[in-house]
Amino acid sequence: MYKNESLVGEAIAECISEGVITREEIFIFGSFRLTSKLHSNFHDPDLIIAVIKHQLNLLKLNYLDLYLIHAPWGTVSTDNASFSVDNIYENGFPVIKDFDHMLIWRELEKAVDQGLVRRIGLSNFDELQVDKINSVFNLLYVFLYYVKDRVDSKSKSTCILNDFYSTNCQF
């Protein structure tokens, strides 16, 4: 998603082959933009499994520990065949395309069933969107003047784990 997966994959493979770590000792998610997410360009349910396999190939891994739907909105890729994360723009804005979140979620559940992904979750979803999907994880954008109290309180009652990024408004 961040165009660094092949470099990350090479580093992981090298560390594993040199005995520095084992695959079981690392959790592929989160820090330093090492997250593999379902990019907004690939919300079409027919593409999801292929996208995950492509990312696994780049990362030189058999499975991901956690896989997130990056955002609730879909965008249009310049080239789905090459899994391009570059968007088509109109009037200076990415073209938005809506997809049914439940269809996306069901495809991710298939990825879990196939052993491609161990856990699935959401990123940048609000309370109403989270209610529609039985997620176990929601990565949220939070900063000083934009606190997600309602989502956090909802999470406590439903056992959803929240993680926050960019708390200093820095990316």
TrEMBL record:
Recorded GO MF terms: oxidoreductase activity
PROSITE patterns hit by this protein: ALDOKETO_REDUCTASE_2
A family per Pfam: Aldo_ket_red
InterPro entries (UniProt xref): AKR (IPR020471), Aldo/ket_reductase_CS (IPR018170), NAD(P)_OxRdtase_dom_sf (IPR036812), NADP_OxRdtase_dom (IPR023210)
Domain annotation NADP-dependent oxidoreductase: ranges: 2-133
Domain of life of the organism encoding this protein: Eukaryota
Family from the record: Belongs to the aldo/keto reductase family.
Protein name, UniProt field: NADP-dependent oxidoreductase domain-containing protein
Biological source species: Oikopleura dioica (Tunicate)
